[in-house]
Amino acid sequence: MLNEELLFTWLQLGNVVDNQRLVSGMSFNEAMVCGLLARAQRSGGSLTASELCAQTRILKSQMNVILRSLEREGLLLRQRSQTDLRSIELRLSPEGLRRYAEAHRKVLVLVDRLISAMGEDAVHTLIPLLRQVVEVFDTILQEA
Length: 144
Prior knowledge:
The protein has helices at residues 2-17, 28-42, 49-56, 60-72, 94-118, 120-143; strands at 76-80, 88-92. By secondary structure, the protein is mainly α.
């Protein structure tokens, strides 16, 4: 059945991507949070915990565990917002940026190998399809 095949393939992809061996020294979710914070910092901004939850779809309780872990390791800085004193802005520390960049370079080597093995044309076709899957799945989940 098509639904079983799609589910099985989806789970296999999830297992490959959500594998701690892709990122050394931090969990997959920590790396994902660091990536979003690094991207925000490159554009001169920061993110709040709520924004991270929305972007990652990680529950607030799980996000708090991730943020405390990153802060304990000296990778995360918290600062009260200048524009909204109720809000706490999150940024990576210099060490957090360094560690994330190191882990990210290693993952990009794997992604480059994937592109090489699949071919650029196939990857250019795959990217919009994966984005469409995410958008459709989000819509379906919001309706449920």
